[in-house]
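name: query_chain
kind: protein
chains: 1
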Amino acid sequence: MKIKKEYIILLLIIIGLCVYLFMRSSDRTHYQLPQLTGLDRGNITKIEISKEGDAIILNKRDNQWYLEPKGYLADTGKVDSMLAVFETLSLAALVSESKDYQRYDLHPAKRINAKAWQEDRL
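structure:
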């Protein structure tokens, strides 16, 4: 009789754990991502891409993109690709709430920042 009770209790525990695992949603997010407003590529006037002290700045003048500070003409196709990315940019997931960026290889030595200005607004 004692063995039967143990098997019944064990079976109930297994069923309970199976129900728990089945009902639990593992893809649930416990945070709210901010909604980004889309950037209009026609209104972007400046793009800055920087990595640990080095920066590439593209300025739009007379419907042409120029690399600053020398004023070299930028490749239109590559600038259009960057503008398309800024236009369709969306947030997919939060990397770290604790700001432990080293763990994800996002420390300042590896981080690449991209900024887009519309007129004088970042």
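note: The chain has a mean pLDDT of 83.
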